[in-house]
Amino acid sequence: MDKKLVNICLFLIIGMMIHACFFVRTNEYVSYNRKEDALVELWNERMEETEAEGVYYYKTRLPEEEIAGRVVAYHTAHMELRVRIGGEEVYALTVPDGATVRTTGYHWNFITLTDADRGKDIEFAVMPTYTDSFPGGGFYYGSRMTVERMIVYENLVRFMVALTIILAGCILKAYDWLIVRKENKDADRSLQHFSSFAIMLGTWSLCESEILELYIPAKVALVYLDHMMLMCMPMLFLLFVRQMYQNRNLMLWKICCYVNLGVVLIRVLLQLVGVWDLRESLWMTHVYLGFFIVAIIAASVHEVVVCKISKELKVNIICVMVIMAATVCELAIYRISHQSTPYGSMGFLFYIVVMGTVSLRKNRMMMERAKESEIYRRLAFLDELTGVYNRTAFNRDKESRMIEDQKTHQAKIPPTVLYMFDLNDLKKCNDTYGHEYGDQYITMVSGVLKQIFGLDGNCYRLGGDEFCVMMPFRNENDIKSKLLQFKNALKEKNRLGFVVPVSAAVGYGIFDPVKDQTLDDTMRRADEMMYQEKQRMKAEVGRN
After folding, report:
1. N or C terminus of the chain: which is more exposed, having fewer CB within 10 Å?
2. What are residue 59's DSSP bridge partners?
3. Collapsing DSSP states into helix, strand and coil, what is residue 77?
4. What is the pLDDT of residue 183?
């Protein structure tokens, strides 16, 4: 479920960005008929404000001194704007006729002045594109370079906090892809969801900083990006947070995710068909966020009552409380002084850093446990002396060779060959030279088996001097070639010298559905062939 939901959101985000860029290329918002000339001066002035029939007017008289090349800058969000100097319209920011998108996006509007404008009245007529939008202050006067520098300076802290959040998310994402997924494929996706949430949160904060609007021409794309981040963040946050709960499989979590996805799909569809802009359907996300908060509280209460609350969840709750305190502080300052502060963004940065650290520590512990589990699993199926598989692994693999026939739906065994090996004179080696040499004998032969058969099949040590190889059956020539290679390798060992001659009796059996019901029957036939060879080899030794 998690992966599908995240992929759908990613697809929608990319699609909306493409739609916005195409819309900007095919529609012109700004018409401007004056040239710019940059000077390095800064000037702020008060504007006289009036309102009539939903249009807000800001008016002042320009200075009498030389003003050529200076600009008056004003920020708008979802506003149409017309600027007149001395009664002449010099700037217009409007929604194109017939456009399905009603917003003009987020804009910094720069009105370049000339000496002919000295002493004239400049008037800004601001028309909100939505009934619940209202213009704000923020008129800047001076050279373009100086004004831009001031805007960047005023929003720099929030911008840098947003970039830091994105960077933290990218680092966590890279760590998840390159380390967590590589070392533990069965790891949960909490770090993946958290890193995606951090990147979306940072991107949303970046759109709110007003700096991107200075340099990115696709203003509508910024609006789309802003809303898409806000819409999809709750789902990723929920997918991350639910891993902290013991009741993570509650139906409530799935309901929240699918409701979130439904809200995203509905809002995107309404935007694409031109019924409601994303700004007009924002109330849907607000309603969902209320439902989301209630669901989180309900799950938390259930966790406290039914289960023991985890340390990770306690840390998460504390961090959320810090975010709420920082946000309340930012809103209070804005209400009192009408100045925007980065406290809310800094609260989110605190959350990302703390919970990112907690998630990294959790995943590191999970990877260590996974490594320990893998070691224990390998020990359970490996022979300690030789490193080949043991009898337990052999029994497991025999069962795994049984597959279901697609036509008859009955169990069947694919073409398989079993080799049985029994070492000669191992007891003599142990009794005469000690078990240390006996162990060398066993490891020497097991090494040859892995060298000859290991690439195509699995090697097993079934007992003290008994080995088995299971591999797919190709043809009789392949079997004879393998056995010849094995015998030649043992001859090479003997040529180098050992305390006793190195040899082994070999038998093999090919699974035959007519003769064999299971691989145990094949194994018995291979054993019989091996026993016959062993008797023959003993007889040859006796004759010599």
Report:
1. C
2. 48, 123
3. strand
4. 65
Residue 360 has pLDDT above 50, yes or no: yes
Q: Report which secondary-structure segment, H or E, holds 240.
A: helix 219-241
CA–CA dist 425, 441 (Å, integer): 10
What is the torsional sign of CA 84, 89, 92, 97?
positive
Whether this model's pTM surpasses 0.70: no
What residue segments make up the domains of the chain, in order of their start? Answer: 2-24+147-375, 39-142, 391-543
Other CB atoms within 10 A of residue 291 CB: 15
The answer to whether the CB of 312 falls within 8 A of the CB of 362 is yes
**CATH architecture for the domain at 2-24+147-375:** Up-down Bundle (1.20)
Q: What is the pLDDT of residue 30?
A: 54
CATH number for 391-543: choose from 3.30.1240.10, 3.20.20.70, 3.30.70.270, 2.170.130.30: 3.30.70.270
Q: In the block, which residue shows the tokens 């026993």? A: 531
233 vs 200: CA distance, rounded Å: 6
Output the six-digit token pair for 59: 């008016």
Q: Is 246 helix (H, G, I), strand (E, B) or coil?
A: coil
Terminal C-alpha separation, the chain: 72
Burial class (CB in 10 A: 0-12, 13-18, 19+), 34: middle
Helix axes 251-273, 2-26, angle to 10 degrees: 10
Over the stretch 43-88, which tens digit does the pLDDT of each residue have?
A: 445 678 888 888 999 988 888 888 887 889 998 888 999 999 998 9
pLDDT the model gives residue 46: 64
Under CATH, what is the fold of the domain 39-142?
A: Jelly Rolls (2.60.120)
Residue 244 DSSP code: G
For the purposes of burial, counting CB atoms within 10 Å of the CB of 253, is it exposed (0-12), middle (13-18) or buried (19 or more)? buried
Dist CA 235 CA 472 (whole Å): 48
